[in-house]
C-alpha cells in the first residue's frame, strides 16, 4: 500500500474514515449523530430484485439472492472452496497490520462486529483475500465491503462474494495501484449529475472526491445505514444494472440539489453530503434509491459511461477548479478596481478575494485529518492540492 500512495503523492497514509470531521460539521447545523446503541441484524429487509422492490421481505430472501448470484458466477464458488487454503497462505506484514487496525473501525454500531467473534471473522475474510490477490492485498474500504457481505453470508461465502465483487464486478480497480476506476468514476459522477449542480459545487471547491470516494469505495456502507448499502449490494451482486453505484450517487445528489444550490460554504456543503444526508431516516433514503433505480440511464449518460475520453485525474480536476476559482476571484477584484485609486490596494484586493475563496478552504483541508476520506484518497487529495496551490499552478 505504501508504494501505491507514493505513486500519487509520496506522503504518509492518513487514517481511514475517521470521526475528526464529525464535531466540526455538527456545529454547522442539525446533523444526525451516530447512536451508541448496538444494532442487531434485521429480521426483515428492503430487497431490490432488478427494478422490483420488496419491502418487509424476510431476511433469508436476501441471503438466497446473494447466494444464487454466487452460484451463477463460477469464480465465487471456486473461491469459497479455496477459503481454508487461503487462510494458510502467507500475507504481507503491512497488509496484516492494516487489517488489524481497521477491524474496530468497521460497523462499530453493529453487535456482530462489536463482538470479538465478528471481528475475527472479518479479519479472516480480509486476510484470505489479501492472500488470494497479493497484488492488491488489502486496501482501506475493503473492510466495509467484506463486513456488509458477512452480515448475510456464511464466512466462506462472504469471501467468495468479495472475490466476485473484486474480480467479476470490477471493484478491484478501485483499490489497484493507480486507483484508475475510482478516478474515472469520480470524473463521471461530476458529469452524470445535473450540470448546474456540478458547476455550483466546483465554484465552492467541492469536487466529487470529497464525498464520493468513500461512497464508491465502500458501496456506501461506511457512510449510510446498512439497510441502504445492502440494497445497493443487491443490485451489484445480481449484476442487473449498469453502474449501480453511480446511479445511487447521482440519485442522492439530485434529491438534495435545491439545498446544495442554495449553499456557498464548502463546510456546509460537506456537512450535508457527509453527515446529514446519511443520517436521513431510512424510509426517505429508500425512496431516493427507488427513484434512482427505476429510471434507466439516458442515451447521453450511457455514452458517457461507455467512454473515458477527456477523463480527468483527481490532480487534474483540482488544478482546473483551482485555476477557475482564482480567475473568478481576480475578475471580482478587477471589477472593484475602479473604486481603488492605487495599484497596491487593488493587488491586495485580488489576493484577499482569492485567499478567502476556495483556495483558503483547500489550504485548511491540506494535510488535515478533516478530509475524512479513505486513506489513499486523502493522500491523493493532499498531493493534488499542494500542486494546484503552488505558484506555478496559480
Describe the secondary-structure layout.
Elements (H helix, E strand, L loop, with lengths): L1 H7 L12 H6 L17 E6 L2 E7 H14 L1 H8 L1 H5 L5 H10 L8 H4 L1 H17 L9 H9 L4 H14 L3 H4 L4 H13 L2 H9 L5 H9 L8 H13 L5 H12 L1 H5 L4 H11 L5 H13 L4 H7 L8 H22 L7 H14 L1 H8 L9 H14 L6
Antiparallel strand pairs: 1-2
Helix pairs in contact: 4-10, 6-8, 8-9, 8-10, 9-10, 12-14, 16-19, 21-22, 21-24
Share in helix: 55-70%
Number of strands: 2
Determine the structural class based on helices, strands and strand pairing.
Answer: mainly alpha
Which whole number gives the mean pLDDT?
82
What is the general shape? globular
Strand ordering within the main sheet:
1-2
Q: How many helices?
A: 24
Can you summarize the main beta sheet?
Answer: 2 strands, antiparallel
Instruction: Please report the distance between the alpha carbons of the first and last residues.
Output: 31 Å
Segments where pLDDT lies below 50 for 5+ residues?
A: 1-35, 349-357
Give me the Rg, rounded.
Answer: 22 Å
- Strand content is under 5%
Write the H/E string, N to C: HHEEHHHHHHHHHHHHHHHHHHHHHH
Would you mind describing this structure in some detail?
There is one protein chain. By secondary structure, the protein is mainly α. It contains 24 helices and two strands. It has helices at 2-8, 21-26, 59-72, 74-81, 83-87, 93-102, 111-114, 116-132, 142-150, 155-168, 172-175, 180-192, 195-203, 209-217, 226-238, 244-255, 257-261, 266-276, 282-294, 299-305, 314-335, 343-356, 358-365, 375-388, and strands at residues 44-49, 52-58. It has a two-stranded antiparallel sheet with strand order 1-2. Strand 1 (44-49) and strand 2 form a beta hairpin. The radius of gyration is 22 Å and the shape is globular. The model is unreliable at 1-35 and 349-357 (pLDDT under 50).
